[in-house]
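Hi everyone, sorry if this is the wrong subforum. Our group has a chain we'd like a structural model of before ordering constructs, and none of us has done structure prediction before. Sequence below.
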Amino acid sequence: MAEKKKTTTKKTETKKQDTKKVAPVKQEVKKQAKAAAGSTTEQKARVGVFICHCGTNIAGSMDLTAVEAYAKTVPNVAYVDNYKYMCSMPGQAVINKAIHDNKLTGVVVAACSPRLHEPTFRTATKEGGLNPFRFEMANIREQNSWVHMHDQEGSTDKAKDAIRIAVAKAALLQDLFPKAVPVEKAAIVVGAGVAGMQAALDLSAAGIKTYLVESDASIGGRMSQLDKTFPTLDCSQCILTPKMVDVGREPLIELFTWSEIHDVEGYIGNFDVTIKKKARGVITMAEAEAKGIVGGGCNGCGDCEAPCPVIKPNEFEMGMKPRKAIFINHPQVVPLLYTIDWDSCVKCGLCVTACGEKKAIDLEAKDEFVKVKVGTAILATGYELFPIEKKTEWGYKKFENVINGLEFERLICASGPTGGHLVRPSDGQTPKKVGFVLCAGSRDNTGIGKPYCSRFCCMYSLKHAHQIIEKIPGCTPYLFYMDIRSFGKAYEEFYYRIQDEGAKFIRGRVANILEDPKTKSLHVMTDDTLLNRPIDLEMDMVVLASAVQPSADTNRTRKLFGVSCSMDGWLLEAHPKLNPCGTTTAGVFLAGVCQGPKDIPDTVASAEGAASAASIPIHKGEVELEPYFATCIDEKCAGCGMCVNLCPYSALALVEKDGRTVMEVTEAKCKGCGTCGGFCPGGAIWMNHFATPQIVAQIDAFLLGGEQ
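Answer:
Right subforum, don't worry. Here is the predicted structure as C-alpha cells:
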C-alpha cells in the first residue's frame, strides 16, 4: 500500500510540474477569451454532473458510487446525480429539474458516445432552461467500460478523469445559436443505376425538381446487363425498363446522360454544381427544334450506325460483341440517342450522310458545362468488378473458357451476344460441366483481393446454376464455395431449391486452374474440406464470381462533395445504424452499392431512404446549421491569408474591412474542424464550442489530476 501511495504522489508531482509549463499559456488564453467574448464580468460556473448506469453496460465495469462521490469534489460542480438510464424520459426529467432547482450554468452527462445521444441531452438541457450548447458529454461507455470491463479500478479512475475534463470545458461554455439558411427546392442525384433512378423518382414524386447525372450513354446501370434476378427469377429488363421509361418521361427529372460532375461549391441548401456534358456528337429532337431544324434530331432509327466503318468491342456486352463508333448499348436505352465514341471515330462523315435531313449528327460538337443550384445531393455511383485477372492462379484473361459473372450474364441473356445460348468462348460448343468459383477475390486477405464479403455473389452463382440446369439438359453445375451466404428473404429456400435441382456443391477454396491445351478443358484443383482430401475436376467452362469494388469515378466524385470513404473505397455514412443514408457533409446522402455491397432489394430500399432524407430539408424550406464555425477577431488578424488555402471546406476568404484586409468565414460552409484556428500564427481565429480557452482548460484539468 505504501509503495502504491508513493507512486501516486510521484505522478501528481509530475503533473504539477507539467502544469507549471501551461499555466502562463492558460492565463493568456483567458485574456483572449474575455476579449473575444467582449465580457467584463464572469458569472460563477455551476455545473451539474449526471452519471448514467446504462443498465450494466457502464455500472457493471466500474464503481459508480466512487465516481459520483469524486464528481462532487470537482471544482465548479454544483450538483451530481446518477440514474439507470439517463437517456430515458425519467432520466431527462432529472436533468430538467436539477437545472431549475440548482440554477446550473452547464451540464455534463457521463454516459455513452455523443454520436448516439448528444441530441437527446441537448434537448433535455434546453428544456431545463439552458442554452443547449452549454452541454458537454463524457464518454464513459465506448471509451471506458467497454474496453476496460476487466479492470474495475482502472475503469473507475478513468471515468473520474473524463468527468473532471468535461467539467473543465463545461464551465467555460458560452451560449451559441444555430443559424438558419434557406434551401433550394431542387436536388441532384449522381449515378442512374437502379439506386439513382429510384431516388430520382421518389424525389420527383415529392414535387422536387431533380437533376439525374449519369456518366454512361444510357441510364440503367449494372442491372440492365443482367438476365434474371434472384430469388424470384424475374426478367431483369422487365423490371427495369418500365422504371427507365418513367425516369425519361417524368417532367420534374432533368436527365444528364453522358455527363459527369465537374465541380461542387456551396453547402447544404445551396450547392452550386457544375455538370460537364460530354460531347455526344448527336443532337436531340428538342435541340434540333431550338435550332430551327424542322423534323430534325436523333430519333434512334439507327441509319447512322450501318455505314460506320469502325468496329470496336462492345463494353456493354463485356467485349463479346462488336459495336460501331456511333452506337447505343441496347434497344431499350433511355434516352434513345446514339453516341459517338470520339476515341475511335475517324470523322469520315458517312453517318452524317446517312442521317440526311434529320441533321442529327454534329462531328464538331464540344463539351458543355451547365451549372445548377440544388439544396441536397444523393450519390449513387455504383460499383464495378474487381479485376480478377490479378488472381493469376485462376487464369482469367489467360484461358478463354474462364469468364466472370457479368460475362456469364450476357452469354445466358436472350438479348446477349449469343441470343441466350451458353457456349464456350474458345470453340462455341455447349458446355456440359460448368464450375463456379465463389468468393473470387472476396474474403481474401492475401493483399491482392478484397477482405470483405461482396454479399450477392453466392446468390447470383446459385441463380446461374439454375439457369444452366434449365437451359442445357444434362449440364451439371459445380459450385466451389467457402460458405454459402443466403442472407435475404426467401434466399435460403432458393439455395435448397438449387440443391434439389442437382447442382453439386464442393466446399473448399480453389487453389489453381489449369488448361488442357488440346481440348481447352479446365482442371479445377481444390481441397474438399468435407471429404478432407484434394480433388481435381475437369470442367468445360469456369465462371468466377468476382468481388465488387467502388466504380472508377467514385473517389473523384466523393472528394468534390466532401464525403469520406473507408479503407476499401466505399463511401462512409454518418452513422452505420442511426444515420445510414447520410454523410458527415450536411445535405449529401448515399444510395446503393457506392456505400458497400448490396443486392437489388437493399439497393432500392437505401435509395428510397436517401430520397426521403434528402427531401426533408427541401420541404422544410430552411435548415439549421450547428454553430460550430470559426470566427475571426479582426483586431488580431494580419490578413496573411495562409489559413484560406488550408481550409478543406473553402469556407474562408480575405475581404476588406475598414481599410484593412482580414479573413472572413462563410459560416454555412465552415464545419468547425479547427484547421485554421490551429494554424493561425496571431491567434485571430476563435473556434465556437472548441475555443482555445476551453481546450486548454481540459488539458490543464488532465495534467492537474484533480489537484487544483
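For your construct planning: The chain has 18 helices and 34 strands. Residues 385-549 form a domain with the FAD/NAD(P)-binding domain fold (CATH 3.50.50.60).
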